[in-house]
Amino acid sequence: MEASVNRILLITISGEDQPGVTAGVSAILAGQGASILDIGQSVIHATLSLGILAEVPGDREPGTIAALIEAFTAERDLRLRISPVEADSYDGWVMEQGRARYIITLLARKITADQLSRVTAVVAEHGLNIDGIRRLSGRIPLGEIPAQSKACVEFSARGSLADADDFRRNLLEVASALEVDLAFQQDNMYRRNRRLVAFDMDSTLIEAEVIDELARIAGVGEEVSAITERAMRGELDFSESFRARVALLKGLPESALQEVAAQLKITEGAEHLIGTLRKLGYKTAILSGGFTYFAHALQQKLGIDYVYANELDIADGVVTGNISGAIVDGERKAELLRQLAAEEAVNLEQVIAVGDGANDLPMLSIAGLGIAFRAKPLVKRSAEQSISTLGLDAILYLLGFSDKYQSDNYPSD
C-alpha cells in the first residue's frame, strides 16, 4: 500500500488581539499530529497578525483541520485564511533561506510614508525581498514632535546583491534627499556580538572642539579655528596642524582649562548610550586627538573604561604651547584600537568606532562597525555607516536593540 503524502498548509489569522489565540490554534494542530515548519506573530495597535506554516500527516483530512480552526476563529471574531502550499514551492522557500540577509535601518525624528516608500523602492530595485520589518523606537505622540524624539524602523531583507556599493550609494542618495539616516549591514554573527566601542571625543562625545574653546579664551580663536576646520576636512596633516594650534595657546593659564571643562556640553544620547553599553557588558574607550585633561573628566562622568589622548604640557600653571609624548593622530587611533581589541581578546569585527573627523577614518575603516557621527562631508562619504539625524544612542538601533530593551524606564511598546 502506497504511503500517503504529507500536506503543507499556510494558516493566517488576523483581528483583535486576545489571549489564547496561538495556544488554541496550536492545540488543534497538535491534535492532528502536525509539525510547525514556520511561525510568525505580530501585534500592531492591538491588532493581531499570526501566520503558521504547518505540515499535516497525509492520513489526516485537511477539510477537518480547516473546519476546527474555522470554528475556533469564528468564536473569537477573527479573520482566517488557509491555503495549501505545494512541496516544490516550500522547497524553493527553504533554498531562499540560505541567501545572504541584510539589515537596513531607517533613523529619523519621525517616520513618514514617503520615507518608507523611497527606501523599500530601492530595496526592490536591487532585487532584494523584505521578509521582516520592526519598529525599534517607542511610539511617538500625536501632534508636535518632541525636540529629541527618536524614530527607527529596521528592515530585514534577503537576496543576492549584484553590486553592494551601488545599493549603498542609492540608499545614501535617498537619505540625503529625505534628511534621514540609512544604515546598511550584512546580518551576520558579529552584528549583535560587538564587545568594544571606541569614541572620538571632540564633536562626538561632546558638542565642541576643545582646542577652539581654549583658543577663544587665549584670543587666538579665529586662527586656531581655521586650522582645525582644514585639518578635520583632511586638507592638512593632523599632527603638523595640531602642533601649530597648540603653539598658539602658549601662555594660557591652567584655570582656563577648568573654565572650559565646566561648560562642555555632552552630546545628545551619549549618557544613555554608554550607560546601556555598560549594562550590556561592553567596554568603552576614548581615542581622541584632544587633551587628556578633558578626556579624563569625561571618563569619570560617563564611566568610560579607557582613555588615550594628548597630554597638554603645563609648567608653573601656564600652558607652554607644547605636547608631552606622541600625538594621537589618525594612525595612532587605529593602532590603539587594535591594541585594545587584543587586550580585550575580541575580534576587530566585534569593535565599533565612532568619530567625525578625517583623523578618525583609519580607526573607522578597521572596526567591524565604523560610524561617522555628525561628520564632515569627506568622512561621511568614506565611512561605512553614518548618523547625522539623531543622537549617539541611535547606535543601539544599529545593534538591533529596541527601546524596550535599552532601559527599564522605556515603555514596552
Task: Describe the secondary-structure layout.
Blueprint: E1 7-16, H1 21-31, E2 35-44, E3 47-56, H2 62-75, E4 79-85, H3 87-96, E5 101-108, H4 113-125, E6 129-135, E7 151-158, H5 164-178, E8 181-186, E9 196-199, H6 210-218, H7 221-232, H8 238-247, H9 255-263, H10 270-279, E10 283-291, H11 292-302, E11 306-315, E12 318-324, H12 330-343, E13 351-355, H13 361-366, E14 369-373, H14 377-382, E15 385-387, H15 395-398
Helix pairs in contact: 1-2, 4-5, 6-7, 7-8
Short synopsis of the structure:
The chain is 37% helix and 26% strand. The chain is α/β, with parallel strands linked by helices and 413 residues long.
Can you walk me through this structure?
By secondary structure, this protein is of the alpha/beta class. It has three domains: 7-95, ACT domain (Alpha-Beta Plaits, 2-Layer Sandwich), CATH 3.30.70; 99-186, Alpha-Beta Plaits (2-Layer Sandwich); 196-405, HAD superfamily/HAD-like (Rossmann fold). The protein is 37% helix and 26% strand. The protein contains 15 helices and 15 strands. Strand 14 (369-373), helix 14 (377-382) and strand 15 (385-387) form a beta-alpha-beta unit. It starts with 6 loop residues before the first strand and ends in a 15-residue tail after the last helix.
